[in-house]
Amino acid sequence: MADYLAWLALERRAAANTVEAYGRDLRDFLAFLTRHLGEEPGQAALAALRPADLRGFLAARAAAGAGNATRARQLAAVRGFLRYLARTAGLAPLALANIRGPRARPPVPRALTSDQAKEVAARTGSIHQPGHAERPAEQAARDVALFTLLYGCGLRIAEALALDVRDAPLPGGQAALRVTGKGGKQRLVPVLPAVRRAIADYLVERGAPPPEAPLFRGARGARLDPAVAQKSMRHYRRLAGLPEHATPHALRHSFATHLLGGGADLRAIQELLGHASLSTTQRYTAVDAAALLETWRRAHPRSG
């Protein structure tokens, strides 16, 4: 199992969180087999597994309270592990194709209200975190610029933190920001004047950094870690009394939800967010259905 997890991390370049979750899932699976078989399983026991044994594992996890998404991930972890053993240890491949995992429902995005999103974007940097190693003025300007960019352009935090100074949308610059999203797919996103001003103010605090430098930097000059941005948001939301779902990613949800509520076309929102499938964008219709209905009533000629 340790070899499999190391292979996932090094060869497949799986995220650290994924490797950690798969490790927990496999420990759950092996613990189930120990109870199910009456002894710790070896390779011979794994080779003798039947699809019914895997279904029993999933049923046991459901009885323990594991949701659909968790059980689907656990089945993927077990499948990957058994296939790895088939390739590396000569384990006979099992008939896994007919075992369907539970269908996980994608969570409904949780957006902030427009007032909350504006407050986060404009005021997060105004609260200095005690004992913080960074320069307070630069940190404040950076956080305002970052969160204004996330809400004003609907970027994922990884997309924003991947920008260099040369990419910075500044007053008088190009009309749109070129963003590299998932899978290396690029898109153009229009930039509001408020976003340009916030980034310009931040770069003044930076003192004219070179074009190749990271746009958003941490205390030691390296590219800002997402965990630092999340910590800043967490610190602010607790002091400001904002809900727990007020996270950097919630600003992206808020961008989409507020556009939809204002009557924007789903296809346009899909392009702005960089979604590969329209079905992903359609999740936002459940968030602001009331506002969407009101837009229809105002726009449809027979609504009266």
TrEMBL record:
Active site residues of this protein: 156, 182, 249, 252, 275, 284 (o-(3'-phospho-dna)-tyrosine intermediate)
Top-level division of the source organism's lineage: Bacteria
PROSITE patterns in alphabetical order: CB, TYR_RECOMBINASE
Cell division among keywords: yes
Keywords: Cell cycle, Cell division, Chromosome partition, Cytoplasm, DNA integration, DNA recombination, DNA-binding
Record InterPro entries: CB (IPR044068), DNA_brk_join_enz (IPR011010), Integrase-like_cat_sf (IPR013762), Integrase_catalytic (IPR002104), Integrase_recombinase_N (IPR010998), Integrase_SAM-like_N (IPR004107), Tyrosine_recombinase_XerC/XerD (IPR023009), Tyrosine_recombinase_XerCD (IPR050090)
Domain (Core-binding (CB)) ranges: 1-86
Residues forming coiled coils: none
Gene3D superfamilies with a match to the protein in the record: 1.10.150.130, Intergrase catalytic core
Residue ranges, annotated region (Disordered): 106-138
Compartments in which it is found: Cytoplasm
Assembly notes: Forms a cyclic heterotetrameric complex composed of two molecules of XerC and two molecules of XerD.
Similarity remark: Belongs to the 'phage' integrase family. XerC subfamily.
Known function: Site-specific tyrosine recombinase, which acts by catalyzing the cutting and rejoining of the recombining DNA molecules. The XerC-XerD complex is essential to convert dimers of the bacterial chromosome into monomers to permit their segregation at cell division. It also contributes to the segregational stability of plasmids.
Protein name (database record): Tyrosine recombinase XerC
